Amino acid sequence: MNNFDFYNPTRIVFGDKTIAKLDELLAKDAKVLLLYGGQSAKKTGTLDEVKAALGQRQVAEFGGIEPNPTYETLIKAVEMIKAQSFDFLLAVGGGSVIDGTKFIAAAACFDDEKDPWSILENYGTNITQALPFGSVLTLPATGSEMNNGGVVTHKGKHAKLPFRSPLVYPQFSILDPTKTYTLPERQIANGVVDAFVHTVEQYLTYPVEGMIQDRFAEGILQTLIEVGPKALAEPNNYDVRANLMWSATMALNGLIGAGVPQDWATHMVGHELTAMHGIDHARTLAIVLPGMLQIRKESKAAKLKQYAQRVWHITEGSDDEMIDQAIAKTEEFFQQMGIGTRLSDYDLDEATIEPLTEQLKAHGMVALGENNDVTPEISANVLKLRI
Amino acid sequence: MNNFDFYNPTRIVFGDKTIAKLDELLAKDAKVLLLYGGQSAKKTGTLDEVKAALGQRQVAEFGGIEPNPTYETLIKAVEMIKAQSFDFLLAVGGGSVIDGTKFIAAAACFDDEKDPWSILENYGTNITQALPFGSVLTLPATGSEMNNGGVVTHKGKHAKLPFRSPLVYPQFSILDPTKTYTLPERQIANGVVDAFVHTVEQYLTYPVEGMIQDRFAEGILQTLIEVGPKALAEPNNYDVRANLMWSATMALNGLIGAGVPQDWATHMVGHELTAMHGIDHARTLAIVLPGMLQIRKESKAAKLKQYAQRVWHITEGSDDEMIDQAIAKTEEFFQQMGIGTRLSDYDLDEATIEPLTEQLKAHGMVALGENNDVTPEISANVLKLRI
Fold first, then answer.
1. Is residue B129 included in any domain, yes or no?
2. How close, in Å, is residue B226 to chain A by CA atoms?
3. What residue stretches are annotated with the Fe-containing alcohol dehydrogenase-like C-terminal domain (chains A, B) (predicted)?
4. Which domain does B32 fall in, by range?
5. Which of A3, A9, A246 lies at the smallest CB-CB distance from B14?
6. Least CB–CB distance from A243: residue in B1, B11, B13
């Protein structure tokens, strides 16, 4: 097992009717800014439920945080906070709203002399203070509700950059599975695949005897395989949605990645597909991952075999056959979730590969993966397998 | 899945040579009180290593915290702190030293007008403040390094009581697996069984569709079954000790117990065996657990079958046969760790059962277990199976 440092102070309040707990979670005299995305938080009644729970507290709203939240939008919330000085930010939404709120919390405390975008340029290392914030999660997928990272897009600069800081853990996150009942199928399917690939990126590398980490990762993957299709078929099944929600949180809260190598090459190539062609993040992962595993199966062989045996219960065939079966099963699972796994499913062909490889080079993504050996050429070969 | 509230802010610094990180973890001007148990922290050099890492900081020592730490000893540390006002407490040892330090941290900030023992009488609910503290763990077993509970014995009152409070989480815990190399076999064996039974108490109840919790618990149990015997056979095997250490921490840091029923009847009966006959805590659990599972197998049938299949990979026989095999395997595992699983292994016979049942009644342990249906009579029947 590798050495590690694990710290996660976010309090999780999980279950049915837990939004009412906001009254205990926040100071009675807190002046609160509610942050949310589009109309769904209003239409579903979640925003009203949150406001009711906040009772007599002073509450203002900032809506319109978009999927892939933009600096241009978020900075308006920062200005609002500087003008009106709130004590607490409360994000109501999914990963984009929570990611955006993390940036806003840090930027609102940032030195007036400095450009807040520099937080992104420094991957968050220059954050020295942040407003306290919490979240009410409505979309299980990214894990942002229990981690300290976020991604912000600067439209003006054509940049999408990540940041993290120990100062931007949510103080608490409320996870009420019933709030996911009204989500569109597409978002549920994306959430399942996103959580699945988050887990794979921290698990399918090379063995370092991280036995607990492996077992936990395998447990999350097996749970997602079991609940994913049911989450589409039975949208009001509480236990299915609860297990999906807790799986997605556990997939990216630092625990399964502590003390083990991590890959993330699939994510980096996927980001370029989103940037160039607007494909949903999770869908880009479903396209790229089977190719990454296929092309890199030699260096990943030991873990791929373990994945075949423990997650997919494949026991027949040579090691290579077992691995091929496991990769095929992975792709079938994504398809079962209604997600296209080929570039051609998104009307893309071989012509997309060269410009995308150039973008990887332009963004410095030239030595990806747990062994830093995934060159742009290898990424191109991965994509050639995925036409 | 049941509703739950999960919060655990302890930072874990894990790995070889991590004691040196104390220098980053503590303020440069901190005045530190080191707390430890017997001579082993000195003899092994761990205490010196800790002091070296603390560099020029003002450091005082308080040694002699015993296994099953006593109020009488701990209160002397409280007096020392009140007289000399330290900023930070640093526990160097196992569960007893860390449990004791939690009490000291709270009692040192307790109202001078009030009796600090009332902290135990109120299960910690009257703690309003505690000194910050951390730990350097030398003995993997109890999980105290990453939870907010402790147990203190009052010799004068013949009482052993638990307490907990969100204010007594260690700020950090350093887990260096090499520090366990010199532990006696008996302590390693006890630690493995203690962590195993902690997990079982939160897992072998009745199903509530806590799929992630079940998978994680099964992962810890499978890891302990794999590393336990190796930890005895290969005391200097780093990965074995690392996985044992991380398993024991994960077994009782709140995660696998969040959102699921919990039992703890085995622990309550075991505590009486320790109190009356001085048997090591883990050994009492090894005596009691197989009987608890046998007698209560009807109400635990669904989870026992799952345990048989997923943890012990038993696939043959009727449900009842599979369950019996799993209980037998559990007992064999404890024996494989060199631990006696019968009262007679500790020179006790049937005569011990009635007085012990009376003690359970005297301590209010009359409705134990996840269904509150384990009466003293049932506990007596459990022990009759264990002669």
1. yes
2. 10
3. 189-357
4. 11-179
5. A3
6. B1
Beta-carbon contacts of A34 under 8 Å, excluding residues fewer than 6 positions away, are: A47, A50, A51, A59, A60, A61, A62, A90, A92
8 Å CB contact of B218 and A219:
yes
What are A's interface residues with B at a Cβ cutoff of 8 A? 1-16, 18, 209-212, 214-216, 218-220, 222-223, 226-227, 239, 242-243, 246-247, 250, 258-259
CB contact under 8 Å between A246 and B212, yes or no, is: yes
Same structural domain, A110 and A221: no
Residues A22 and A171 in one domain: yes
Give the three-class secondary structure for B164: strand
Residue B137 parent element (H or E): strand B133-137
Asked if A42 contacts B47 with a C-beta cutoff of 8 angstroms, the reply is: no
Q: Is A2 contained in some domain?
A: no
The CA-CA-CA angle for residues B14, B132, A125, to 5°, reads 55
Compare CB distances from A18 to B3, B242, B247 and report the shortest one's residue: B3
CATH number at A218 reads 1.20.1090.10
Q: Which of A11, A25, A211 to mutate to test the interface with B (most CBs of B within 10 A)?
A: A211
Number of domains in chain A: 2
Size of interface A-B (CB pairs under 8 A): 117
List per-residue pLDDT tens for chain B, 387 residues long: 999 999 999 999 999 999 999 999 999 999 999 999 988 888 999 999 999 999 999 999 999 999 889 999 999 999 999 999 999 999 999 999 999 999 999 999 998 899 999 999 999 999 999 999 999 999 999 999 999 999 999 998 878 889 999 999 999 999 999 999 999 999 999 999 999 999 999 999 999 999 999 999 999 999 999 999 999 999 999 999 999 999 999 999 999 999 999 999 999 999 999 989 999 999 999 999 999 999 999 999 999 999 999 999 999 999 999 999 999 999 999 999 999 999 999 999 999 999 999 999 998 999 999 999 999 999 999 999 999
Is A107 found in the same domain as A213?
A: no
For residue B212, give the nearest of A4, A15, A243 by CB distance: A243
